[in-house]
Amino acid sequence: MRIYLESTIPSYVVARPARDLLQAARRQLARDWWELKRGQHELFTSQVVLDEISFGEKAMADRRLETLRGVPLVQVTEEVKELARKSSPPGCCRPRPTAMRPTSPSPARTKWICS
């Protein structure tokens, strides 16, 4: 399956231990999926996600970026924007002005993961 990774997965994968039980569970689920399941899928992301995860504490931002190193980038086209609008809850994927990078898989057959 093709899976578009937005910022939640790398954020939880590198997150510090949490006292909140729900946050700790999300962190563990993300880490387990990343370690055990990611190799079974065709992953890709976008420059928008890389820009988003580069904010915050430098050490944590570097770890988030390292997590997605080597994951192909999808070119953000009008087709991609429309798919994001149709498949995301309101407010999930906010448009941001940014330069996009090289091409990747066709977004038409893609499962988008947003939170």
Walk me through the structure.
The chain is mainly α and 115 residues long. It has one domain (2-112). Helices cover 43% and strands 7% of the residues. It is built from five helices and three strands; from the N terminus they run E-H-H-E-H-H-H-E. It has helices spanning 8-14, 21-36, 47-53, 58-67, 78-87; strands at residues 2-4, 42-44, 111-112. The protein has a three-stranded parallel beta sheet with strand order 2-1-3, with no helix packed on it. Helix 1 crosses helix 4 (58-67). The chain is globular. Mean pLDDT is 81; it is low at 95-115.
Described by strand count, sense and barrel closure, the largest sheet is:
3 strands, parallel
Number of helices, counting only DSSP H or I runs of 4 residues or more: 5
Mean pLDDT: 81
Strand order, largest beta sheet: 2-1-3
Oligomer state of the chains in this structure: single chain
Series of secondary-structure elements, N-terminal to C-terminal: EHHEHHHE
Question: Could you tell me the radius of gyration in angstroms?
Answer: 14 Å
Whole-number total of structural domains: 1
